[in-house]
Amino acid sequence: MKTVFIGINSKYIHTALGPRYMAEYCRQKGLQAQLLEFSVNEPILSVLARVTEVAESLRSKAAAFAEEPVLIAMDVHIWNRRYVTELCELLKKTLPHCRLMLGGPEVLFDPAGTLARIPEADYVVCGEGEEIVAAYLQYEAAQEKLGTDGWAETQEDKGDALVKEPIAQENQGGVTAVESVAPGALQHGLSPTLFLREKPATGWPRGLAYRKTDGTVVAPSAPVIVTDMDRLPFPYPDLEKVVRQHKIIYYEASRGCPFHCAYCLSGISRSVRRRSLPLVLADMERIVAAGAKLIKFVDRTYNVDEAYYLPMMQYLAAMDTDAVFHFEIKADRLSSQAVEFLKTVPEGRFQLEIGVQSTNPAVLTAIGRKDNWIRARRNVAALLAAGNMHIHMDLIAGLPLEDSGSFRRSFNEVYALRPQALQLGFLKVLSGTALDRELERYGIVRMAEPPYEVLSTRYVSYKELRFLKILEEVFDVTANSGRFRFTLDYLIRQCNEQKVTQSGEQRATQTVASEKEDDAGTRDINKERSRKADAFVASVGNEKTAEDAFALFFDLTEWYRQKGLFGLGHNSTEVAELLFSYVKESHPDWLFAVRELLRLDVLMNLPHFKPEWLGWRDKINYERSSRFWRKEEVVRQYVPEYTFKNWRILHRQYALEEFLFDPWERKERSVFILINYSETGLTRMETNAII
Ligand code: SF4
């Protein structure tokens, strides 16, 4: 049987690692497999046309078997479930002889529910697919040789389809198959194009769920995993093409996670399996030699075993390449030896993604995380001080026990570190997770369909989460853009010092509070929330966070909300303008300083943006700058490698500007700043060097 593996990615630059591994694994076994990748943004009819064309061409090559079915296998994720569901329907309508096989995190824990929801699907892969799919194709080939369709003719009716009954022949490797019928599986009737049989012959792959004639689903009792990662192939046979298309190279050195966070599926199979280090390094050599720019390790927690990951990182750091390697780590698990090593890695070589989720110990306990925030903070601070890598940290809103006060504290503690990016995520409760069984306990209300995002909990209302969504957007375009550092630092300090009297924060608090008063049902919840917040403050000893950065983002978000500015996808020049308008309207006393600091941020990060309202003094700056660059000896005190080539190159590489507010001293006074664009650095100049 020929197979088409389909990966529906969330963005064009992504690569579908799962289908890639499966396709390559099958090819290694001598099975015919083709990989097709698309993105959810492509029109579904174009995707259908491409898939059916490829499937038909595969079939026509087997002239002797005109009716030979083609297997179409797809992996299903939160971002593509709707798309895949629709595609299944279209595929069965246009290719009635195809067999549809689904796998991936959205379906593997609920095969019966999946086959009920997607009646066109024939099989569900319950686990890691490589060996399961290959075994299925080998099974079909063997049955074809025997001249059977691989299924028993009939089986005695058991009389009760709901009985869960182990099937002896499926009981391999500790995984037992059970029968179950999903609610509604029979109500809609079964499609006539489905491949329904009573019972497969011996050799049916464990891990592959199928549907019987009465709609009963036979599935393994636990996901089946690949135990030996060394058996997996290199998933990029088309590496050069992928690199040419500037796609991200995803790579898996290990599978599984030893932790078991209540909202995550990765920890369900705790067994961590690793690919041998020499094989990983050989794969990396190959990827780097092809010119890949960004390699993302998708290992769920990369730094579990120092004896494994540290030599790997040391090797990658020593490679002669400008490629960037991205890892998801737990910062509290870095030993001092690992931190010391990371501080020496060439600048820009590594990116670290660190999931903090919350700094509140009670919240972390509720979600099954034993993270040590104090140690994590110390390690991250040391790495950020070294300044040689991009650090991205994550927080999640809507966690059990986390109310707005607790979230604000988590935010402030993480923001105080000034990572290059702080991503504010929202809790998603996936089916099959431990949290899915505790919805009632925490009063969690969530979307029933992907992305299963939480709408409210006993600790945080929908209105608060809705507000945080806008705050996330505001934070992303301002702080996470990295383009307004001086302006934001000043505004945070001002907000903290002046307590933002009669500002949006108060207005917003009053608005939210009065809205809540209207809703009598929320009063008890509010009381409970403030009790929890008090308990949390008591548990951390009333220690105040040094800086309440949240105050600024709250105030700015409220201004943004009142003006209806959210959801409009502003670019950075528009954001600069919005920041200016916000200060002009809400805090006019700060306008003088903000104009100067915003001009500095813009000059550094948006050099072609020259709006009049930023008060450029072009003529005088040009005269001073021309004088300065002519005094080579003075220039070399600031730019040791300086040699004059021509004015065009000089102006492209440097900017010299006077500001009337000192960003370091934070006071009104003249300061000259030299910006070196090739090093993205700033130099404060002595006034007498310029004048
Ligand atoms: S959230 Fe991360 S650490 Fe927790 S179980 Fe999932 S992969 Fe493991």
User: Widest sheet: strand order?
Assistant: 2-1-3-4-5-7-8-6
Provide the gyration radius in Å: 29 Å
Which fold does the CATH topology of the largest domain refer to?
Answer: Rossmann fold
> Mean pLDDT score, rounded?
86
CATH superfamily of the largest domain: Cobalamin-binding domain
The share of residues in helices is 40-55%
Shape: elongated
Major sheet: 8 strands, mixed
CATH class of the largest domain: Alpha Beta
Instruction: Count helical runs.
Output: 23
> How many β-strands, per DSSP?
21
Assign the CATH architecture of the largest domain.
Answer: 3-Layer(aba) Sandwich
Q: In whole angstroms, how far apart are the ends?
A: 80 Å
Could you say which small molecules are bound to this protein?
iron/sulfur cluster
Indicate the structural class.
Answer: alpha/beta
Low-confidence sequence ranges: 154-174, 183-188, 500-505, 510-523, 532-544
Number of domains: 4
* Strand-residue proportion: 15-25%
